[in-house]
Amino acid sequence: MASRISTYSNLVFKLLLLVSMIQLGSAGRRLTESTQPDQQMQFQYHNGLLLHGNISINLIWYGNFKPSQRAIISDFVTSLSSSSSKPTIAQPSVATWWKATEKYYHLVNSYRHSSLFLSPGAQILDEHYSLGKSLTTQQLVQLASKGAKQDAVNVVLTAADVAVDGFCSSKCGTHGSSLGGEINGKAHKFPYIWVGNSETQCPGQCAWPFHQPIYGPQNPPLVAPNNDVGLDGMVINLASLLAGTATNLFGNGYFQGPKEAPLEAASACTGIYGKGAYPGYAGVLLVDPTTGASYNANGNNGRKYLVPALFDPATSTCSTLLV
Fold it and tell me: What are the coiled-coil residue ranges (predicted)?
């Protein structure tokens, strides 16, 4: 009997690893695997640029989003920087979570005294699906190019009825860079992020733990803190990709594993949101007594969010807001 139980456990573990291959592109959010990073693959700094300075986050909305849905994301962006967070915001906060990325900068001499301040930028609406409802990666770059290309990160957010190459089958979003012209006679690259609304296409892959996963333990899904499974899932993916963009700006910053499929600051800790997390269980979280929603971070305008654990380069462990 013990042998059968062991065999069954191994099969479940292998299934979880199979599901974990669905990634956030270069950010590599592994959806249901919640383990510490493989210590045999060292998390390293590869001498590349880190995002720094005063950076605007431009939001490019592609397709049909309600104003209330746009507010969920824009309030999250506003909540990121501590100087924009009101002192009355309860802890733990989104700003406290984001501040943990500073540890990466402190370990690099050339960035030790640098600062990164994120602020809300422009919001660009493309409600009429100017490029259709099935997008290629190149078209995502085309959309990202609508935002400012200097001192900015352009975030493309696609609606629930928009298909994107690789969406659901291999990724929930991605971050990358593209040429944005010349500045002072030198070619300039700008960073961009894409995140898709998975509510109707693949919530089991891209909106867990607010929807039951396709494989693995079938625990009841958590109640989404903003009562929108698709948008609350997008927040998790956007948070992971922003952390990856900041610490691995052009693919030669901080990451673990192969450059083609790196594990980054958040994607190295996929599925971990609170203490005691394991595959299929997000960990111990806060629960809103009124709505029953699960969360681990407070934001501006009374918002509550679920944000991923971040890999701590000083301790080589996944660090959560709730300990």
Answer: none
CA 51 – CA 99 distance, rounded (Å): 14
141-168 pLDDT, tens per residue? Answer: 999 999 999 999 999 999 999 999 999 9
Q: Are strands 186-196 and 173-183 parallel, antiparallel or unpaired?
A: antiparallel
> What pTM value is reported for the model?
0.88
DSSP 114-164: --EEEEEEEEEEETT-TT-SEE-HHHHHHHHTTS--SSEEEEEEE-TT-EE
Alpha-carbon separation of residue 248 from 56, 104, 173 (angstroms): 17, 10, 16
Q: Tell me how far apart the alpha carbons of residues 154 and 56 are, in angstroms, rounded to a whole number.
A: 8
Continuous segment of H or E residues that includes residue 238: helix 229-247
Residue 186's φ and ψ, nearest 5 degrees, are -115, 145
User: In the predicted model, what is the mean pLDDT of residues 221-250?
Assistant: 98
CA separation for the pair 279, 81 (Å, rounded): 31
Tell the residue number behind the tokens 């700006």, with chain if given: 249
Q: Give dist(CA 308, CA 222) in Å, integer.
A: 15
Q: Give how far the C-alpha of residue 218 lies from the chain's centroid of Cα atoms, to the nearest Å.
A: 23
| pLDDT for res 180 | 75
Q: Which residues of 165-183 are buried (b: 16+ CB within 10 A; e: fewer)?
A: ebbbeebbbbbbbbebeee
Helices and strands counted in the chain (H then E) = 7, 15
